[in-house]
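Lab notebook, design round three. We kept the backbone fixed and only want residue identities now. Task for the bench partner: fill in a sequence for the structure below.
Input structure tokens:
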């Protein structure tokens, strides 16, 4: 698991990538800072990820930033977990099928 990458949740809706990077830059070199956005509306989903150059900087940022108040919201900061693979195709919904002869009579 990469301990240089932090998950940052409960972010204010107004924050952008540059603002997130500036917020965490005081703890060390920020390699990347991304606010996750809805693919259709382009609006923030309220969370993002910050990647540091060193694990030490990430650990210090996690310890000091967790629970900090930003625009009335207490942010959540944790080491990011790897994304779990989801099965492709055919997610959810009615699949039909079944035995047509076993339908309930009305």
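Proposed sequence:
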């Amino acid at each position: 698991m990469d301990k240089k990458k932090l998950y940052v949740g409960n972010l204010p809706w107004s924050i952008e990538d540059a603002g997130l990077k500036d917020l965490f830059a005081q703890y060390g070199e920020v390699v990347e800072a991304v606010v996750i956005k809805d693919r259709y509306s382009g609006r923030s989903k309220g969370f993002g990820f910050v990647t540091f150059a060193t694990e030490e900087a990430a650990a210090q940022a996690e310890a000091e930033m967790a629970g900090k108040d930003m625009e009335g919201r207490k942010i959540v900061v944790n080491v990011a977990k790897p994304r779990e693979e989801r099965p492709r195709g055919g997610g959810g919904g009615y699949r039909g099928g079944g035995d047509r002869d076993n339908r309930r009579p009305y």
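Keep this in mind before ordering anything: The chain has one domain: 5-79.
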